Amino acid sequence: MITLTKAPEPGPAPALRAGMSYRPATVAHHNGEPVHPGRYVIEGVRRWAAASPEVCPDVDGSEWLTDELLVCPTCGLDCT
């Protein structure tokens, strides 16, 4: 049995288009589902229907914003 003493470091963030940015707040969960460390909400695309991933009702949907960036279409969480 392998025991991890600390969470793995997040990988590099996908490249964003001009006008896009990452919301600097840490995401605790996506409607109760765990979120990998280093996942953030993308801003500058549109106004997301859910104010944050923690209150997002959509846990199954996804949308490609760029060739490398997959997000929740309801809250903008980076799901790449």
Automatic annotation (TrEMBL):
* Highest taxon of the lineage: Bacteria
Kindly provide the name given to this protein in its UniProt entry.
Uncharacterized protein
